[in-house]
Amino acid sequence: xxxxxxxxxxxxxxxxxxxxxxxxxxxxxxxxxxxxxxxxxxxxxxxxxxxxxxxxxxxxxxxxxxxxxxxxxxxxxxxxxxxxxxxxxxxxxxxxxx
Length: 98
What we know:
- The protein is mostly helical.
- It has helices at 7-16, 31-40, 51-56, 58-61, 75-86, 89-97.
- It is globular.
């Protein structure tokens, strides 16, 4: 839900709590899933989901299989996450500051 022209801009958006679900990747995501993410991304800790709140959310309590494969993680996002996971800790820190 964060976007920006550079990693530095994205980090600033994260730190300032500026995000949205306007990206195409969020079009087929359920309202319950978006509510779950909203609960996790609250900037003020008193407004943010605690672990029990997150587990009790309607999205976490659903036990429905994915019916539409288009709601699965986009392949490009999955590839980026796999690549990032292989980076060293120092590279991850440097990327956040870039």
